[in-house]
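Justification of resources, computational component.

The compute hours requested in this renewal are based largely on the per-chain cost of generating structure records like the one below. Each record pairs the submitted sequence with a full structure-token output. That output is archived, and it is also reused by downstream analysis tasks.
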Amino acid sequence: MAEVDFKQANESYAANFGDNGKLSIPPSKHLAVVTCMDARLHPEQFLGLNLGEAHIIRNAGGLAKESLRSIIISQRLLGTKDVLIIHHSDCGMLTFSDEQLRSKVINAHLGDANVSEAVNGLQFGPFPDLDSSVKDDVAFLKNHPLVLKEGNITGWVYEVETGKIREVV
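The structure output for this chain reads:
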């Protein structure tokens, strides 16, 4: 297990929880943020968001297609309007291809047909160009029939080297 005493950390967190249990379920800023699961990103901090203000949807690469289910729920049931897509510099998704990852998994389980079949059915979503991936994700959401058109959908890059964000689209 990780070298963190989760129980002790939670005790400290809960001791200062205050009225956070009374926050409403819908985010107060009507905002959904889609970003990468990278441990170096703390979107609430670099966007100046407080608990209860936005839905933070994270996955490998911050990919819109993988986040679609959550965005639909966020918009249709919980009232969010705006969506921010935030990818980041030095992203691991820039470093491999689907075939490279498939080969790695298959080679770790040689002869296991179930593993081979399962991994061959997956699209991992790597991308060769950061800005293009942001533009593609924004276009995907803007053109998807289940994503509401009432809010803004914008795309950004977070620079892990400086902590700054820049708008792409």
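The mean pLDDT is 97. The helical segments are 6-15, 43-47, 64-78, 98-108, 113-120, 130-143.
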